[in-house]
Amino acid sequence: xxxxxxxxxxxxxxxxxxxxxxxxxxxxxxxxxxxxxxxxxxxxxxxxxxxxxxxxxxxxxxxxxxxxxxxxxxxxxxxxxxxxxxxxxxxxxxxxxxxxxxxxxxxxxxxxxxxxxxxxxxxxxxxxxxxxxxxxxxxxxxxxxxxxxxxxxxxxxxxxxxxxxxxxxxxxxxxxxxxxxxxxxxxxxxxxxxxxxxxxxxxxxxxxxxxxxxxxxxxxxxxxxxxxxxxxxxxxxxxxxxxxxxxxxxxxxxxxxxxxxxxxxxxxxxxxxxxxxxxxxxxxxxxxxxxxxxxxxxxxxxxxxxxxxxxxxxxxxxxxxxxxxxxxxxxxxxxxxxxxxxxxxxxxxxxxxxxxxxxxxxxxxxxxxxxxxxxxxxxxxxxxxxxxxxxxxxxxxxxxxxxxxxxxxxxxxxxxxxxxxxxxxxxxxxxxxxxxxxxxxxxxxxxxxxxxxxxxxxxxxxxxxxxxxxxxxxxxxxxxxxxxxxxxxxxxxxxxxxxxx
Amino acid sequence: xxxxxxxxxxxxxxxxxxxxxxxxxxxxxxxxxxxxxxxxxxxxxxxxxxxxxxxxxxxxxxxxxxxxxxxxxxxxxxxxxxxxxxxxxxxxxxxxxxxxxxxxxxxxxxxxxxxxxxxxxxxxxxxxxxxxxxxxxxxxxxxxxxxxxxxxxxxxxxxxxxxxxxxxxxxxxxxxxxxxxxxxxxxxxxxxxxxxxxxxxxxxxxxxxxxxxxxxxxxxxxxxxxxxxxxxxxxxxxxxxxxxxxxxxxxxxxxxxxxxxxxxxxxxxxxxxxxxxxxxxxxxxxxxxxxxxxxxxxxxxxxxxxxxxxxxxxx
Amino acid sequence: xxxxxxxxxxxxxxxxxxxxxxxxxxxxxxxxxxxxxxxxxxxxxxxxxxxxxxxxxxxxxxxxxxxxxxxxxxxxxxxxxxxxxxxxxxxxxxxxxxxxxxxxxxxxxxxxxxxxxxxxxxxxxxxxxxxxxxxxxxxxxxxxxxxxxxxxxxxxxxxxxxxxxxxxxxxxxxxxxxxxxxxxxxxxxxxxxxxxxxxxxxxxxxxxxxxxxxxxxxxxxxxxxxxxxxxxxxxxxxxxxxxxxxxxxxxxxxxxxxxxxxxxxxxxxxxxxxxxxxxxxxxxxxxxxxxxxxxxxxxxxxxxxxxxxxxxxxxxxxxxxxxxxxxxxxxxxxxxxxxxxxxxxx
Lengths: 501, 315, 346
Description:
heterotrimer, A: about 500 residues, alpha/beta, Rossmann fold, 2 domains, six-stranded mixed sheet, 17 helices, about 25% strand, disordered C terminus, C: about 350 residues, mainly alpha, ABC transporter involved in vitamin B12 uptake, BtuC, two-stranded antiparallel ribbon, 6 strands
């Protein structure tokens, strides 16, 4: 084993990003590292490259324990990394970029001739015929990517970590890059390949390791794995058990909202959606498939360019979040830090914010009333905070999520969108959020819950919409809601037919 | 041959008789009231002499001025007035004018070129202005002890340095006159007032101040208000002398609130035209620097009349 | 914020002010004495209250703008425009009321323009307000036709140099404006919404905050404060000096906000602290004039004092000092140089 991480653990306030993770990399293999957002991939890589200090576990390189202190230190040890955004300087020449920090010197001065020949030597075997004296920025991202790889391989030479290297490449460029990667594999390097593109993963990888919620889920030979099984692993369906929907628990209410042909070019293909009062609609799909985009056009966060949403009284104006809120909508976004909380403001102010914005600046909620509201929700939602006057940014992820839920509960919306409500929060908070969802629905609220946790969707949803390639591709209801059906709908491009109970 | 001589002689006679001289004037711009007044006065002086003045506003840019002078040379004007925006970089264009035998007169500011390249320069002497102000004060107070506060111009600017030096020259030998406070008022009315308030605070509510010397009238106008607000009478309790002779200071003098101002005349063109006329008539070469008069105005010099005369000049 | 909370918030500024006053008193012993001359108070403290008025007024508006993570560089130019408008009106023989309304209207209009560029067109505040900063003085010069537009209207002059109950009108102006704006933002929800937009614009929008209207409002308040400041300086010298009115005062106003402890990155703000900041700056200015140093030293002394104040208020300074101490201690214990701490992240 070239590189072996054992029992790797990394904690952040309120969450365990890596929990006792095992990862092995052999020389001469391409090892794909997969998982949804928040699964722990980037944390694992950062621990391996020294960008993060691990809280537990050990890293063995060639059988010897190593302790990378920084990316530079990791490089010296033999672990090189290339990121999606090339970390080189576009205004320097290719040769300068390749030799940066270790330019060959003569009499104390950089020898340009020696630098050029070293650069050519470094690029040898990568199948590039480029002028090393031109600025790096003159070349395509793919070429820059390969130059970055050449530099990383030259500096480290044992382990190469490629973090989403193909995200901005076209198919031809991907092929070029993969040729390079195969060449390096033959030279005996161990290569870690991180990507969201499953086709590419199957095309290049020898083995696949799947992480989920900071835990190691599986490591298998790529050849022995099919797409459905892989997606199952990533989305967390336990292989043996079949979670099923708790049907008939709720009576479907009257029709509340109806969206027709709602869409936005480049973000989400026009879709129809009917929402009844007191129901939970689940939404499943891989990252970037159009789930969040659906939520954003419904809430006016991105103005739709086609379609209408109407209720019993007529069409609704959902052109801005403020108008959507006035129409009785709410939206707890996926990225809590950038889209949800107002970090420097207190728990009280964060809870009161939406209601206050809705009332307008001239009708302030009295301080005592704000306090009462905050205290009530802190109690009801069990928000763990030293007090209502604590800046919300200092709370853990799960408690921040509860503050945002409290913000919307205070508005008492008729339709609430929850985008990944349980991502990155600890188990206890997770269960409570699910309990709250059930509570809200039984009070008559309608919910759209977007989640990568399939069991969660199966457990709470009355219907599940499956999204793929920015298009609503399937709707499951009642008995048909099973993790297997969802996974099949996500995985199989031909499964266009609507499965209905 | 005689014919030609006659023809040229008659042309010369006709030229002088009709005074149809064409003079190009390259002005810096109109960045201050004084500059605007200079433009107005130059146009008035040209009109009074029947000179056809070609005016060009350079908007503070040397390249515009060089282009203007070149075009004057191309037109074949009889003379060029130049108020240079900077001191350097004029050699080439002045040589072109010299080759075309067009006399150039510099107004108000000097250039770093060889004096042979221009006919003469007309300007004021900043040190002398200060001296006139200082001498007036020395004469005014006689042997009485006098504590003077000074409002300086923008720190480091040449008028501030020279007017400060000149004033000290003017009071030299009068041990009874002492400059007790000296601060910059940035040549502005607001700062003049602010700094004067501080002077009044520092000098026993103003009771210890005998006179104010301000490097320009605007600061003096501001300071006069400060003195009044402190309950003192400017012009009586505190003598006020300043430099520039802009209209507003004459208003103050008419009201008895300012005592004297030294004129920085905007009429640079008058002496310039006089020198040019002599040059055209019989080739008289003037001195290389014509100093304008730094005339002293006091309350006795019909301040109201001076105000009325000046307020239309664009100050 | 309740009384003790407010006091805790402005305690660093109050201490700084006290230190500056003490320092000036060392150089000019009678600095703190206030007397009565006729029916008005006189003395350096009164001068500070009066002379600090323009920066204090600008600081009120600037605090709100900065709280939204913006900045308003144009306030000095707006002062010139508004002063010129009012002087023009008085010069035309219109009543003082018309002149004041014209100036306030001009200030609101300038603020609306800035707010439009920032909130509607999405131009970065520093660039958006730079436009008016540059063009504004030109507009003012067009109004005054390039001259200092003098007037003799006693009522207008009263705005700049009059006194009510012994206290100069400019001092009343900023104190009252500070109380009014302070009450408006804290007794309504404006303050909360401004802070929320300043901390996280995107999240605030998603919570339903109408950030466009809010940004327009703060830039208009800033324009209005600049208009008041412009009226005061114009009334003070009985003339509209388009070239010099409010020149560079935007920078002093930003400095006052910074000394007041409001982060230039937006969020939590305190108008009271900014006002104390303005008084700190003015105490330094007045102190320098009174101390009688040669004028060449003015800017250097001011810069050094401001640097000292900002360093002492810097939250990092405590950390750095603690870090140095800890490092020294650790080095003493181990007898070896401490290992450099690596920054995380890519």
